[in-house]
C-alpha cells in the first residue's frame, strides 16, 4: 500500500487530501485521508520528482527526463505532456527540479539546472501547455513558490541540486 520508492514531493489544497510523487516508482498518488484510500496515476517511465495541485480537479508533475505533465484527478493518464521542457543538456534532457503554481489559475512555473525559470500557461481545458517567458538565473533552481498575491515568484537557487 503506497509508493514503492521514496516520496520526492507532497502538496495539499482545500480538501482532506494530499498528493505525493514517488520518484522511481513513476507514480503520483492522491491520498483521500478520511476514506483511507488512494488514487494512483501512471504516465511517466522516469522518476517523477515534483508535483503541485493547480485546483481541486487538476495537478502538474515533472520528471527527471525533463517532461512536465498536466493531469485531471478523474483520469489515470496525463492530459498532456510537454517533453524536454528545459531543453537538452550535454547528454540528456535537463531535469525539471522545481514547480510552482498560482492556485486556481492557468499559470505554472518550472525550474531546472539550465539557468532558467520558465513560466507556462495551461489551455482552458488543460490539454495544452504553452511557454510564456524564460527568466534567467545563475545556478540550479531547487525550489519555487509564488507569493500569495501572485506578484512575485520566489526561487531557491544553489550551486547544485538539493539533497
UniProtKB/TrEMBL annotation:
Keyword Repeat included in the entry's annotation: yes
Pfam families (UniProt xref): WD40
Protein name according to UniProt: U3 small nucleolar RNA-interacting protein 2
Main location: nucleus
WD repeats by residue range: 1-41, 96-121
Cellular compartment(s): Nucleus
Keywords: Nucleus, Repeat, WD repeat
Annotated source species: Oppiella nova
GO molecular function terms noted in the UniProt entry: U3 snoRNA binding
PANTHER family hit by this protein: U3 SMALL NUCLEOLAR RNA INTERACTING PROTEIN 2 (PTHR19865), U3 SMALL NUCLEOLAR RNA-INTERACTING PROTEIN 2 (PTHR19865:SF0)
Amino acid at each position: 500500500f503506497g509508493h514503492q520508492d521514496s516520496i520526492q514531493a507532497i502538496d495539499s489544497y482545500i480538501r482532506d487530501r494530499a498528493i505525493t510523487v514517488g520518484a522511481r516508482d513513476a507514480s503520483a498518488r492522491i491520498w483521500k485521508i478520511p476514506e483511507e484510500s488512494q488514487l494512483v496515476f501512471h504516465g511517466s517511465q522516469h522518476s517523477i520528482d515534483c508535483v503541485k495541485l493547480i485546483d481541486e480537479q487538476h495537478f502538474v508533475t515533472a520528471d527527471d527526463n525533463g517532461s512536465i505533465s498536466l493531469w485531471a484527478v478523474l483520469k489515470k493518464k496525463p492530459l498532456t505532456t510537454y517533453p524536454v521542457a528545459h531543453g537538452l543538456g550535454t547528454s540528456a534532457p535537463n531535469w525539471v527540479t522545481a514547480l510552482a503554481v498560482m492556485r486556481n489559475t492557468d499559470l505554472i512555473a518550472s525550474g531546472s539546472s539550465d539557468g532558467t525559470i520558465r513560466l507556462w500557461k495551461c489551455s482552458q481545458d488543460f490539454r495544452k501547455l504553452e511557454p510564456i517567458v524564460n527568466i534567467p538565473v545563475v545556478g540550479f533552481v531547487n525550489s519555487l513558490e509564488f507569493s500569495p498575491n501572485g506578484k512575485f515568484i520566489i526561487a531557491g537557487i544553489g550551486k547544485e541540486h538539493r539533497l
